[in-house]
Design brief:
Elements: E1 3-6, E2 9-16, E3 21-25, H1 36-42, E4 47-51, H2 69-82, E5 89-93, H3 95-107, E6 113-117, H4 127-139, H5 141-147, H6 149-164, H7 172-180, H8 187-198, E7 214-219, H9 224-236, E8 240-245, H10 252-255, H11 257-271
Parallel strand pairs: 3-4, 3-5, 5-6, 6-7, 7-8
Antiparallel strand pairs: 1-2, 2-4
Helix pairs in contact: 1-11, 2-3, 4-8, 5-6
Length: 273
């Protein structure tokens, strides 16, 4: 099982292919397997690295009492250095996109490009977003300790579909199949990860420091606040393209892998001509 030491944890990763490096960062409560469709498609042209973020999958938890997006970005920094990946493109989705933003601000001079999918910036635009992104996430921790995160997340998916429409969650069965094939997250690790995501609004990020070419992707049926953040990234980043992934919800790389991978391939061809 390939691992590398990053900030006190053994981080599990899968490295495939050869060529310019692309590093994939998965969403919360998932693992590296989220990126299987893209890795399969791109490993013939690029060095692909997909890894399990601290607290997730085969990397598992750690003794730290609390996590943050900044800590996850420091772990990513250590991973890139340990694997000697020179000027990679970093591709993150949802929470992985938050991590990718924090890493890009920290290491803009060491990046070739950035892909931010179905994600959001630290800014919270209004009370409704606060309730959905901060209060609701924090409120999941006590019931998860009693019922497990699978049941609680299914309830949240049901609620989101009633508010934003059935397509907002995309192919949720695909998410459940991914989780069934990997190690189960403990309630303590779930709490630390979710609190880190819910605290992202406290992170100080200067988006204008991200000067590398950036591709922003979001699902056609995404929640309104995510689409709003896609527009914000499109206006504040100096070198950015924004594309909507048709027939896709929050996990757009799984909901419409053909379109997502095609857009990613086009972007990589521009970054690595």
């Amino acid at each position: 099982m390939p691992t590398v030491r990053t900030n006190g944890v053994e981080t599990y990763y899968e490295r495939r292919g050869s060529g310019p490096p692309v590093v994939f960062v998965h969403g919360a409560i998932l693992d590296h397997g989220q990126w299987d469709p893209q890795v399969e498609a791109l490993a013939g042209e690029y060095t692909t690295v997909a890894y399990d973020v601290r607290g997730h999958g085969r990397t598992g938890g750690s003794a730290r009492e609390a996590y943050s997006v900044d800590l996850f970005a420091a772990d990513l920094d250590a991973l890139v250095a340990a694997l000697d990946l020179e000027d990679p493109v970093v591709c993150g989705l949802s929470t992985g996109g938050c991590i990718a933003q924090a890493y890009a601000v920290r290491r803009a001079e060491d990046l070739s490009g950035l892909v931010l999918a179905d994600t959001f910036t630290p800014e919270v635009f209004d009370r409704r977003e606060w309730l959905q992104r901060v209060a609701m996430l924090r409120a999941t921790v006590p019931p998860v300790r009693l019922l497990g995160y699978e049941r609680v997340e299914r309830a949240l998916v049901w609620l989101q579909e009633r508010v934003h429409g059935r397509d907002v969650s995309g192919d949720y069965d695909a998410i459940e199949r991914l989780r069934a094939g990997g190690p189960r997250m403990t309630a303590d690790e779930f709490a630390k990860v979710i609190r880190a995501v819910a605290s992202f609004h406290e992170t100080d990020l200067d988006l204008e420091a991200i000067t590398v070419p950036t591709l922003v992707l979001y699902g056609e049926h995404e929640a309104p606040f995510v689409r709003r953040h896609a527009r914000k990234l499109g206006t504040e980043l100096p070198d950015v393209a924004v594309r909507e992934v048709p027939d896709a919800g929050h996990a757009s790389n799984l909901d419409n892998p053909e379109f997502f991978t095609g857009a990613l391939r086009e972007f990589l061809a521009q970054v690595f001509p």
